[in-house]
Amino acid sequence: MKSDWLHFAAPQAFFPIAGKLIPWFSVLAGVFALAGLYVAFFVAPTDHQQGESYRIIFIHVPAAWMSMFLYVVMAGWAGLGFVLNTRLSGMMASALAPTGAMFTFLALWSGALWGKPTWGAWWVWDARLTSELILLFLYLGFIALKAAIADPLRADRAGAILALLGVVNVPIIYFSVQWWNTLHQGASVSLARAPSMAATMLTGMLLMAFAAWMYSIAVSLARVRTIILERERDAAWVQLQRMAA
Amino acid sequence: MLPGFALIVGRELRVALRRKGDALNVLVFFVIVASLFPLGVGPEPNQLRAMAAGVVWVAALLAAVLSLPRMFAADLADGTLEQMLVSAQPLALVVAAKIAAHWLLTGLPLALVAPLLGLQYDLPANALGVLLASLLLGTPVLSLLGAAGAALTLGVRGAGALLGLLVLPLYVPVLVFGAGAVTASLSGINASAYLSLLGALLAVSSLIGPWAACAALRVALD
Question: What is the pTM of this model?
Answer without folding.
Answer: 0.89
